[in-house]
Design brief:
One of its GO terms (cellular component) is plasma membrane. The chain has 427 residues and is mainly α. It has one domain: Up-down Bundle (Amino acid/polyamine transporter I), CATH 1.20.1740. Helices cover 74% and strands 0% of the residues. The protein is built from 17 helices and no strands. Helix 6 runs antiparallel to helix 13 and helix 12 packs antiparallel against helix 13. It is globular. It starts with 17 loop residues before the first helix and ends with a helix.
């Protein structure tokens, strides 16, 4: 057991620059979302789902810019919860931090299970238990990568991120000749209201800007690096997602017998056959593993920050002298992933049901964050940027239906817990 015997053991190292942030932004945002969500959105709204992707691609710019400014002006491993605390006080800040942490620990294993489904398809494995075990192994791999140290992980991911983008472009390129323009009609077979539902589902592929803010304490020049990296990545992912969604809509027939959530596999199967589909599954596993590493990093940094600030046991803020990583927080995150997978084994069900709830819950935190930004920043440009991002987030949340209601109730319950805890502690 590691003891906290000096202040140096709870200080993170400033080792990241613009390139590193681009890597972590892309590896956070490009992963299981782009591999499973386009197929789900197409099933929900038909070709009209393309509107959802286009709307979100445009909305990504003000949202990314706002979070970049937040991280530049208020760098903290606590991320958005630190900004909310500065604007509205400790209790609401603690509530948002706890809510985000619980959401991370609940939803992150979805990434591992997505990798497991592609891997099982590649190997010809079947069975719920196999999927869960492989999914847990994938999450454990992300924890180990983070244990090795942030600098090592960043250098490895630099190669992986550019490889995954090249792989996605290659899949779209070889699938495009199989396009059938007639598949775009009827354009809105399930009505225009389905676009609102698709937006909430597609948002799962776009949230993650707040996760990169958790490494703000480790950025050498946050005022310069965050805005540059965020706007570059907003353009990259917007173009990537919209292009992939268009290719899927042009290649995949409606109501196909193929599992359209396995995006790369279905594209290659329909355009080039079963052998190509296996290659798509292998690439998908590769992409998701890259994504897992970034999300494990964000969850561990948030837990570290809460422990450092007294919202969680102080011992969880211990940082390794050798690697500079919050080892106690990483071990705790790993245990939580094990509990999540165990719960799924007992309860059964489909992890994809968590996607709309995860998107809506993230939007709830976004509303608080952008409202906090309007309160903390006095410049007209920044207040306008926050207002645009706030109105956009409200519109997305209102169109979400039941998942949005459940997300609001879950956050309210978290605030209630913090208030009751504070009342029990006394003045």
């Amino acid at each position: 057991m590691v003891s906290v015997d000096s202040a140096a053991q709870t200080q993170l190292r400033k080792v990241l620059g613009t390139r590193d942030l681009i890597v972590y932004y892309v590896s956070t945002l490009v992963g299981s979302g782009i591999l499973v969500v386009p197929g789900i959105a197409l099933e929900l709204a038909g070709p009209a789902s393309l509107l959802a992707w286009l709307i979100l691609a445009v909305a990504a710019f003000p949202i990314a810019a706002a979070f970049a400014r937040f991280s530049a002006e208020y760098p903290s491993a606590a991320g958005t919860s630190y900004l909310i605390r500065r604007a509205f006080g400790d209790r609401l800040g603690a509530s948002s931090g706890l809510f985000l942490l619980l959401l991370n620990l609940l939803v992150n294993p979805v990434l591992g299970l997505a990798a497991a489904r592609y891997f099982a398809a590649l190997m010809g494995w079947h069975g719920h238990t196999v999927i869960l075990l492989v999914g847990f192994a994938a999450m454990s791999l992300g924890v180990v990568a983070n244990m090795l140290g942030l600098r090592i992980a960043s250098q490895v991911q630099l190669v992986l991120v550019f490889s995954l983008i090249a792989g996605l472009v290659a899949v779209m390129g070889v699938s495009a000749p199989a396009a059938q323009p007639e598949l775009l009609t009827p354009f809105a077979p399930y009505g225009w209201g389905a676009v609102g539902t698709a937006i909430l589902v597609c948002f799962f592929s776009f949230f993650g800007w707040e996760h990169v803010s958790h490494v703000a304490d480790e950025v050498r020049d946050p005022r310069r690096s965050f805005p540059r990296a965020a706007l570059i990545v907003a353009g990259i992912i917007g173009a990537l997602y919209c292009t992939l969604a268009l290719v899927i809509a042009l290649v995949v027939p409606p109501r196909t017998d193929t599992d359209t959530t396995a995006v790369l596999a279905v594209l290659l199967r329909l355009s080039h056959g079963e052998d190509a589909a296996r290659l798509g599954s292998a690439l998908a596993v590769f992409l998701i593993v890259v994504n897992i590493n970034a999300w494990v990093l964000g969850a561990s940094r948030l837990l570290y920050a809460m422990a450092r600030d007294g919202a969680a046991p102080r011992r969880l803020s211990v940082v390794s002298r050798r690697t500079g990583t919050p080892v106690a927080a990483l071990w705790t995150v790993w245990v939580c992933y094990a509990l999540d997978i165990g719960g799924m084994y007992v309860l059964g069900g489909d992890e994809h049901d968590l996607i709309p709830f995860a998107s809506a819950s993230t939007l709830v935190v976004y509303l608080l964050t952008f409202t906090a930004g309007m309160r903390l920043f006095t410049g007209r440009a920044m207040r306008t940027l926050c207002a645009v991002a706030l109105v956009t987030s409200v519109a997305f949340l209102l169109g979400g239906g039941l998942p949005s209601l459940l997300a609001v109730l879950a956050f309210t319950a978290t605030v209630g817990y913090i208030l009751l805890r504070g009342a029990a502690a006394g003045p």
